[in-house]
Amino acid sequence: MRVTDDRYAGEMEKFDLAMRMIRHEARTGTIRACTGFTEDRVRKLVASYCRDTGRPPLRRRRGKSPRQVAPFVSSAERQAETTRLATLYVYCRAARVTGEGQITGGDAASQVEIAQRVCQAYELYQLLESRPTLSFEWAWNLYHALLVTGELYFAWCAGCDAPYVQDRYALDYEHCPACELREQQGRRATGSP
Which residue of 9, 31, 60, 142 is 20 to 30 Å from 19, comparing CA positions? Predict the structure, then answer.
């Protein structure tokens, strides 16, 4: 092995991550934040490696990445899906959960490694969900809201003691999405409002 081979390992790792994120239809700004590449370089990667591949064309989303957290807890179904994805972040070691429900960074050494683990969690999410509704950009927003801004956190259900993602600034009725859905089905079955 030559000394120069190791010099390019980090660059190849960033390139592979950028291509992985492009395939997930990540926005240019998100790819830049994770790899350190310029906008021009990301566009050139798309033009060079993603055109005329025989696959359906990639959609390139424009504008800023989403930053709202309300859609993650807007319904019991969405909150359950959000909780599953957040749990996958922990499983893939992109995050850790403290005893108080606080979410901290995993043991990743760099932004590239964090982004690779978020990609891994998102890919698992796509495999496990029968109809995934969260795009990669929303998944990245979820990660940001859990770890950076702290607007979302893990709470524990008073009924079954299961963890669920909750909005820090919203009322918490201490019901996980599964208990909430069971309660809704029970009300429908009995005809109660």
Answer: 142
| Cβ proximity of 105 and 96 under 8 Å | yes
Look at the chain and count its residues.
193
H or E element: which one contains 166?
strand 163-167
Q: Could you tell me which of 23, 151, 130, 31 has the C-alpha nearest to residue 86?
A: 151
Distances (CA, A) of 60 to 11, 12, 46, 124, 171: 23, 23, 9, 22, 36
Report how far apart the first and last C-alpha atoms of the chain are (Å, whole number): 71
Distance of CA 148 to the CA centre of its chain: 13
Question: Cβ(172)–Cβ(166) under 8 Å?
Answer: yes
Q: What is the 3-state secondary structure (H, E, C) of 75-110?
A: CHHHHHHHHHHHHHHHHCCCEEECCCCCEEECCCCC
User: 193: pLDDT confidence band, cut at 50, 70 and 90?
Assistant: low
Model-level pTM?
Answer: 0.86
**Tell me: the pLDDT tens digits for 97-155?**
877 767 888 777 788 999 999 999 999 999 999 999 999 999 999 999 999 999 999 99
Q: Measured between alpha carbons, how far is 58 from 70 in angstroms, rounded to an integer?
A: 28
- Which residues, 6+ apart, have CB-to-CB distance to 146 below 8 Å? 86, 89, 95, 103, 152, 153, 165
Which helix (H) or strand (E) element contains residue 44? helix 39-49
